[in-house]
Amino acid sequence: MKFSEYIQYDGLGLAKLVKDKEVHPSELLQVALEHTHKANPKLNAIIIPMYERAKQRAQQPLTGTFAGVPFLVKDLFQEYQGVPTSYGSNALKRINYTPDFNAEIINRWEKAGIVTFGRTNTPEFGIKGITEPDAWGACHNPWNLKHNSGGSSGGSASAVAGGLVPVAGAGDGGGSIRIPASYCGLFGLKPSRGRTPWGPQFSEAMHGAAMQHVLCKTVRDSAAMLDAVQGPEQASLFIIQSPTQKYLDVIQQMPKKLTIAFNTQSPIGTKVSKDAIQAVQQTAKLLESLGHIVVEDRPQINGLELAKDFITTWFSQFSYMQAQIKHMSGATDEDFELDSNALAAFGAKTTATDYIHTLENWGMYSTQMNIFFEQYDLYLTPTTASVAPQNGEVAMPSWQKPILKGFLKVGKAHYLAQGKLVEKMVQENLSWVPFTQLANVTGLPAMSVPLYWNKNGLPLGSQFIAPFGREDRLLQLAAQLEQAQPWMPQYKNIQL
Predict the structure, then answer these.
(1) Does the residue 235 lie in any domain?
(2) Which pLDDT does position 411 carry in this prediction?
(3) For residue 453, which of 33, 62, 241, 385 sits 20 to 30 Å off, Cα-Cα?
(4) Residue 220 domain-assigned?
(5) Catalytic hit among 86, 89, 149, 152
(6) What ranges in 390-490 are assigned the alpha helix state H?
(7) Total count of domains within the chain
(8) What is the extent of the structural domain holding 470?
């Protein structure tokens, strides 16, 4: 098989070729590796190769929905036994941390037949919406190499859009599937709280706000992967009822006439680009042409307060994680990025009372969304506030670094996160990506659909949020949109 053929198929398409004995898994892997050797130096998507391991697996009898399909996993919470894992951090990279277990989602992907040949780039511990870790360097966007691929699943997004694989592992705790999907022109679904597994080392992540799934080119690959991995495990804290019908079957059916609310204003009062507004407006017109009702409206939720409650939990959880990593690895503050140390310092000063109050607010936001969905079937927004930023564009200003280092040195960094500075920090951290956290906080399923490219050839996704447990509704609509306005042909415009 030539790369020009390989790039035309999604994961299920390649799996069918294997099943029909038109191609062998080792041939698919060879094509993927040849293109990787050419393209990855430009993209910096794969940071930890698993090439020899993959070659051995490709020679084994493989079964499952994606039998023989080349695959990549994110270098964060998707551990392979015996494979070095860094979480995007020098703290783990320097000690060559190598887990002695498989993450449960890896076991389920393997059961589906995938052939994993590498781990993908991610920001340190996944705490940013861009992928520029000190440990591995920036991950480049295949649509324009000067731009970033987004985060935290940036390496996976870059690899899929760049043609290395048709589908790759990803995770989403604040938008980390949907943000890179938006920036790289991919389909990205964040499942409902509890839908996919977190074991064996965790029962959940960030109170169910963070979920694992994939980034891919087609809706049907996402549906089939969700069929393959969804459902509880021994470690599950949240148990969600399994669907009565396979998602892959659901998307064969046309959705009912939907009433969809849309909004293009930033929930935290920050700027939204013309591209983002046009993306949603064009999506709304497409929806109306398909017979759906589209109404401009938004939930009765204070977006800035929700963002502050998200940030409080996020920083606190990261502070705990950093402490655990230090204990396990012997790392010091010097092994972490300045931004990470600052977030950990802020989080460490959150009191138990404040933390519980924040979680109470999370429940209130969920209630408001339930009320909102009594009137509407779905909620549409831009996925991101703009197209992908250029590499280095969202970095901490150089003048801020010595100030922050000084405060950290004397243990006073948390003073920077008090009063009005909290709002400023929220707006600075989330101004590029203000729309995605709502679904994480409330545990609702959400997706980014690639329906818009600007005049410079950069994509920007449309985000849909659905009621709890209604991934079927999202996938069904996405399949209809994909059929009405196919985006697969766009990938032929990428030159690497």
Answers:
(1) yes
(2) 75
(3) 33
(4) yes
(5) 152
(6) 400-409, 420-430, 437-442, 471-484
(7) 1
(8) 3-301+433-493
